[in-house]
Amino acid sequence: GSIIPSVYYNFFPAEGKDTITGMLNSSWGQMVLLGILVCVVGIIICGRAGTLKERDLTANKQIQNQNNEYKFGLGILVAIVSGVLSACFNFGIEAGKSMADVANAAWQAQHPGQGNFLYSNNVTYIVILWGGLTTNFIWCMILNARNKTFSNYTDGKTPLLKNYIFSALAGTTWFLQFFFYGMGESKLGNGASSWILHMASIILIANLWGLALKEWKGVSKKAVGTLVAGILTIILSVLLVGYGNSLK
Question: Where do the structural domains in the chain lie, given as residue ranges?
Fold first, then answer.
C-alpha cells in the first residue's frame, strides 16, 4: 500500500506524485524507504512474538489447539492476501484524488489564503466505502440465509438496543481511523510515508491494547521481550519516516 502507488507513478507520471525512482535518488526518499523497511522488520518480529505466545499458552493449557478447522498454512495465506488487499484502500484514495481536489478547490475559493481543506478526502470515502458495504452486506446475507438467523435482528430475547448501539459504535470507531488519516494526509500528502505511518500506528496500538488487556499474561519472558522489540522497531520506523518527510 505504501510502495505500489510510487511504482505506478514511475511508469505513469502525474504532477505532484512521488515516483519510486525519485525516492531512491533523494535523501528524504531513501530515509522514508528505510523507515518502511524497518517497519516490515518490526511487523515480522511482532509476528514471531505472536507465534511464541500461542506456543506458550498451548503448553500451559490456557488454550486448546484441538480445532479441527485449524490449518496454519491456509491461515497464513488468507492473512497475507488480506494484508495485500487492505492496501487497495490507499489505491482508492489515490484514484479518487481528483474528487478531493475539487472539494479542496471549492473550499479554497470560499476561504482564500487559509491553506488546504482539512476534510477534502471525505468525498472520496463515500465512493470507496460503497465497495466495503456491498461485499459485507452480501456476505452477511449469505450467512444469515445459511444459518437461518434473520430473526436475530428482531429477537426480543436478546439485548437488541445494546447490540445495535455497540455495532454502530464499532463501525464509527473503525471509520474514524480513515477520517483522521484523511485530515493528516491533507497536510502530509498521500505518498508512501502517509500510508506506512497509518499502518504502523494501527499495529502499535493493537499490540499495546493487547498488553493493557493482559492478553500476554502467562507467556514467557522471551515472548514478551520479542513483542517489545517489535514495538520498539516499529516506533523507530515511524521516527525514520517522520525524519525523511522533514527533509523533503
Answer: 4-247
